[in-house]
Amino acid sequence: MRLLTSLLAVFAVTAGSTAAFDVSCNSNYASYYGQNSARNQQSLGEYCKDATEDVIVLAFMNGFPNIILNFANACETTFEGSTLLHCPNIASDIKYCQSKGKAVILSMGGASGAYGFSGDSDAIAFADTAWNMFFKGKSDKRPFDDAVLDGIDLDIEGGSGAGYPAFINQLRSHYASDPSKKYYIAAAPQCPYPDSYLGTTLNSAWFDMVYVQFYNNFCGLNAYPTWFNFADWDNWAKTKSLNKDVKVYIGAPGSPSAASSGYVDGATLASIYNDVRSKYSSLGGIMTWDVSQARTSGIAKSIRAALDAGGTCKHDGGGSTTPSTSTSTSTTASTTTTSTSTSSPPYSTTSISTSTTSTSEPTSTTSANCPVSGASCSGNQQGCNGQKFAICAGGSWYTGSCAPGTYCYLSGNTAMCDWSNGRPTDTCAVSGGASLSKRLDFNKVSLITRPNLRPKPMSAKSNRPTRVEFVAGDITDNKYSTVVKIQTNKSAFTGDWSFSFTLPEGQTVESTSRGAASINNNAVTIKSDPSNEDAKNMAAVFKIEGTFKGNYALPETKSAVFSST
């Protein structure tokens, strides 16, 4: 999903569910709220007045275990003496939404942020913290006061996979202590299977709902039916998931501007939904990124009509009653980032952005001094200092770290964490103030060629239709990383496979995150380690790293050859 707002300290989980939401239905509609993607985000309560959505996913808690919450213009107040968001208006709206039969859950992660666990003990401790701050536990600081959320969603698009199963297991033990209501665990993987960040967790922990992002990727809705791979996820639900009744949602962009690729109109989405519904019993409904985009474009209304026309459950889902407390809807709009997540939950199947073109010099601004934690600042300034982002709170800078491999950049007056894609990685800048000057010390940005996002399938030795894609990642000085994506949409391949391609002139391969690499002149071969592979696979996604001379270029997909026993 796209993290479209500034890195303000904010966190959310949803309140108690009611009987109106039935997780077993195949006609539920979930939509993300909080990132002001369409730049016209209304209060949460406003979206709960009618019957359109069944689940609202609050986005995001983009920092943990050191909590950072970000809900754009929906909440901009903090606890006194703290950078933790305090959102009493959202709290009132959570209760209102639940009274209308909707579930409200909190999404952890997102495309950029500072999150991840060092191990199981760290994750277990944070599950206790989450229960106390957002559910039925007790804490001196509860961002949503006495509102009780309905669950957690994992939209993990960076860092390691350490600790997430332990986190889920511990949180579910807290869920079990309160039989008065139902609580949920959800995830938002990207469509290439298996997901590079959540794959292991999805196989080893309990999930109720999985919102697969069928956009920003080769297996998106725009590739239906050729590369659209709901079948892979249905198979996962029935053979790998601990919960054999887990529900898989068709994740869709809410408008053409909500994703870099994958948008289809309402009629097309309804046709795809009906086709999936007729074939796959794991279907849970449709998810959109995000509610502001889907409501503005009108596709939300089309989705609701399609779900009610063909799904297993029909319900009113809401009414016209006005929330008892009106929610603040500050007109401060957050700035969108241009990085996109492409393969596992808004972006890439590894810690790489799919925003891959950068042929001009960056335009980041700078001040005389880098923002330093505790130093003085004014107003609502935001800033960057290399891999650290800075937020001005109470007249002092609060700093946090970007996710590994990402760096802080200013987009207008908004600080955001993003992949460098050839830009300087030592940006020192603050927002606000008059005519901040352009950096004079940046290096000339390397020319990054746009990858072929829809290369023609190639045939492996076994004549298996296979698709390969190269995606540019982090480019720093003369070092690069490139994501390799291989997928078949027919017969699975074994764990004993090899992949070869021709490296552009002047490049080397120093490491691969999967298997072992060998190089002969410009010919590279990646050989799998069968002991670390599944017996059957529909995809292989991995990262190669090395050096380059001159301008960086992606390998030509036409040089790629894939074979499997």
List the helices and strands and how they pair.
Layout: E1 28-33, H1 44-47, E2 55-64, E3 68-69, H2 88-99, E4 103-110, E5 114-115, H3 120-134, E6 151-156, H4 164-176, E7 184-187, H5 199-204, E8 209-213, H6 230-239, E9 247-253, H7 266-279, E10 283-289, H8 291-297, H9 299-310, E11 365-366, E12 382-385, E13 388-393, E14 396-401, E15 407-411, E16 414-418, E17 428-430, E18 437-438, E19 458-459, E20 465-476, E21 479-488, E22 497-502, E23 511-512, E24 516-520, E25 523-527, E26 539-547, E27 561-564
Compose a concise summary of this entry.
This protein is α/β, with parallel strands linked by helices and 565 residues long. It has helices at 44-47, 88-99, 120-134, 164-176, 199-204, 230-239, 266-279, 291-297, 299-310, and strands at 28-33, 55-64, 68-69, 103-110, 114-115, 151-156, 184-187, 209-213, 247-253, 283-289, 365-366, 382-385, 388-393, 396-401, 407-411, 414-418, 428-430, 437-438, 458-459, 465-476, 479-488, 497-502, 511-512, 516-520, 523-527, 539-547, 561-564.
